[in-house]
Amino acid sequence: MKALVYENFQAPLSIQQVPDPTPTPDGVVIKVAATGLCRSDWHGWMGHDPDIKLPHIPGHELAGTIEAMGKNVKGFTIGDRVTMPFVCGCGSCSQCISGNHQVCDTQSQPGFTHWGSFAEYTTIDYATTNLVKLPEEISNETAATLGCRFITSFRAIVDQGNVQGGQYVAIHGCGGVGLSAIMIARALGAQVIAIDINEASLAFAKAVGATHTINAHNHPDVVTHIRELSQGGAHVSVDALGSAVTCFNSISCLRKRGKHIQVGLMTGDHKHPKVPMDRILSDELEIIGSHGMQAHRYPEMLAMIKNGQLHPEQLIERTITLEDAITELPAMNQFKNKGVLVIDTF
Questions:
Q1: How far is CA 326 from CA 183, 251, 276, 296, in A?
Q2: Strand, coil or helix: what is 152?
């Protein structure tokens, strides 16, 4: 099959012919129809993920059809159009039994623990537990935007943040995760404050539901400005970027008993950022991580998409070819794109 491969971290990528995959007894092979280009793929290419073994094929947000199945897979047939969360739970550990597949003790992740979806075919482990059938109303390209950024934001806003109508929600960083969180929070009736350093990204944030926008370059005291706009502080604040500054600001802008949700990956020098522990204690703030979403939580999200409450297709900036990803993936840390790129030509 045709695939995008890197032989070393931070090295040039290339298109190669590699062996076709075969399913495990509990897995499937998926013919990839569309796959999103995510900053997590950039983190993997940089060498930030210890699970990756070289040479490697990235890609973890995908939609396609089942091409081959293992003997133990139940509830699906060859040709089914499917998607899945980027974290595949085993279905049998204590975390999965409690319903928390997103933090499975033996999780697998395409594009990280094994070869991913920047290829004509990819494999998925624990298919019965993790595959999600796609309704006709949702295109492959739209479905490919869901598997990492959108579902992570959905869980962060709906399940972890428990956002309610009328609350103030601050979103720090208006990339794919941030824009998804803005759209979802607004659909729940929240007043959303979007923070970024790029005017084009802030304009896009406004278009998908932000009530207020703040350019952090133009406001030296972002926290005070958020507290003024939210009449005392945000009820829920999300660090959708993952930096020492955005993490600190997200916690500091909360009102008493507010919730900080950490979604942006914290790597390198940002792994252990300073936090305002004095306020966390005195104001009883909650600090919550959010990592993916379980397959069994997809129906609520898909229903909101089908009935027009959510429009993830609006987040797609453009579709590209597999060859285009050779240059687009290494450039992701430059934040040149205000929306999501989706590979739909292989």
A1: 30, 37, 41, 34
A2: helix
pTM check: above 0.90: yes
pLDDT in tens, 308-342: 999 999 999 999 999 999 999 999 888 777 789 99
Calculate ∠ Cα 177-178-182, nearest 5°: 120
Residue 178: its H or E element:
helix 176-187
Instruction: Please name every residue paired with 81 in a beta bridge, in sequence order, or none if there are none.
Output: 65
CA distance 235 to 279: 14
Strands ordered across the beta sheet of 168-172: 212-215, 191-196, 168-172, 234-239, 254-262, 286-289
Q: How far apart are CA 81 and CA 139, in angstroms?
A: 10
**Residue 111 corresponds to which tokens in the numbers above?**
């594009």
How many Cα atoms sit within 13 Å of 2 on the Cβ side?
Answer: 8
Asked if 329 and 58 touch (Cβ cutoff 8 Å), the reply is yes
CA dist 132 and 84 (Å) reads 6
| pLDDT tens string 52-99 | 999 999 999 999 999 999 999 999 999 999 999 999 999 999 999 999
Measured distance CA(61)–CA(151) in Å, rounded: 10
Concatenate the DSSP letters of all residues of 249-315 into one string: HHHHTEEEEEEEEE-S---GGGSS----HHHHHHTT-EEEE-----GGGHHHHHHHHHTTS--GGGG
- Three-state SS at 321: strand
Taking CA 8 as the corner, what is the angle to CA 7 and CA 14, rounded to the nearest 5 degrees? 40
Is residue 267 within 8 Å of 243, Cβ to Cβ? no
Residue (of 270, 201, 302, 285) closest to 48 by Cα position: 270
Distance of CA 198 to the CA centre of its chain: 20
Q: CA of 208: how far to CAs of 65, 155, 183, 291, in Å?
A: 30, 18, 6, 23
Identify whether the C-beta of residue 92 lies closer than 8 Å to the C-beta of residue 55.
Answer: no
- Coil, strand or helix at 175: coil
Strands 340-345 and 121-124: unpaired
